[in-house]
């Protein structure tokens, strides 16, 4: 069974001034991640505004990332959508492009209400790509609040290609329970950047996050300090992480994160509506504020 390792970047989707996807920026993004010792890329997730893209745009993004990063980065395609038919199309493309895994959020309008319904949905979403490991994307934003230990224990044996969970939730109690579900069989990958050190303490070995795109050095330093027992460095650098997340939250979340990519010399453009629309001056100010934070 696949076990992910290290820092995996939840990639932004670059948009041009006219609002179209800027596919030509992706090779530069892949080069930047590889240079920062990132181990993988999560394509078209929430950070990548996947649900704001058309199926065809998502297919082209999957192609562009495969071409730019295959052999250098583990490729994980987020294929979640409101329609299971759309998921199937995206899953088959992930298989064709030889992605390493795929991941699906739950539906966010007609929601599964219990662990059986969630398992039935995930089985239907995963069966169109039986060749690939499947990661359920557990996120607070979906409104589906089912404990992941319960899900993994119930889904065990019912979803043949279930590999684990992308865990984007503040509930570290449930996270630890999920890590140990079914004897630790499943891969539970942590996705809340501001709780990075806490997840390390609970034993996780893989993380998927948006801030690794432009501040991976900070997390590598925290991980190294954690393993060395250098708690002062862990504390100081986690404070920087939290201040950086505060900067994101105050300035539009994904919109601000895309602005911070200017630190890498990468212009990801604006986010799509309904996300906050930042002016060029605001984007520059946000990136400069993050730069000062990283230099402290």
Could you characterize what this model shows?
By secondary structure, this protein is of the alpha/beta class. The protein has a single domain, classed as Aldolase class I (TIM Barrel), CATH 3.20.20.70. 45% of the residues lie in helices and 13% in strands. It is built from eleven helices and eight strands. It has helices spanning 26-35, 55-69, 84-96, 115-126, 148-155, 172-180, 196-202, 212-228, 231-250, 254-260, 280-295; strands at 6-10, 40-43, 74-78, 101-104, 134-139, 162-168, 187-190, 206-209. An eight-stranded parallel sheet has the order 7-6-5-4-3-2-1-8. The mean pLDDT is 97.
Short description:
The protein has helices spanning 26-35, 55-69, 84-96, 115-126, 148-155, 172-180, 196-202, 212-228, 231-250, 254-260, 280-295, and strands at 6-10, 40-43, 74-78, 101-104, 134-139, 162-168, 187-190, 206-209. The protein has 296 residues and is an alpha/beta fold. The longest helix is centred in the last third of the chain and has 20 residues, at 231-250.
